Amino acid sequence: QVQLVESGGGLVQAGGSLRLSCAASGSVSSVGAMGWYRQAPGIQRELVASITSSGTTNYADSVKGRFTISRDNAKNTVYLQMSSLKPEDTAVYYCNAYLRSPYFSHYWGQGTQVTVSS
Asked: Are the beta carbons of 116 and 13 closer than 8 angstroms?
């Protein structure tokens, strides 16, 4: 059984930084693209950043230049370094991974709250 376990959320002041981590565990034979999504109250879940298995990255326009996504393939882990945080970044952040166990499918983490105070 596959699990995506997230950590690193919390409360931070505007202008501060946080680093999120998400590790895939269980019977994982291969991991494809991984990404981070976020959902604020009353708003549809949106893609924040994604990274392919070869390291190609993609960012939402709202976070470009402030957030950096990276991954450690040996640990099946994806990270999101968030800097210059703004109150509008407040949301529940979800990890997503496209991985094989034993067939390729999308998996979601449980979500971690990020709150940015002004």
From this structure: yes
Contact 98, 30 (CB under 8 A): no
E-assigned strand segments in the chain: 3-7, 10-13, 18-25, 30-39, 46-51, 57-59, 67-72, 77-82, 91-100, 104-108, 112-117
CA distance 44 to 42: 7
List pLDDT tens digits, range 66-115. 999 999 999 999 999 999 999 999 999 999 999 999 999 999 999 999 99
Distance of CA 5 to the CA centre of its chain: 11
Q: Where are the beta strands (DSSP E) in 43-90?
A: 46-51, 57-59, 67-72, 77-82
pLDDT digits over 38-75, tens only? 999 999 999 999 999 999 999 999 999 999 999 999 99
Between CA 39 and CA 108, with CA 23 as vertex, the angle to 5 degrees is: 40
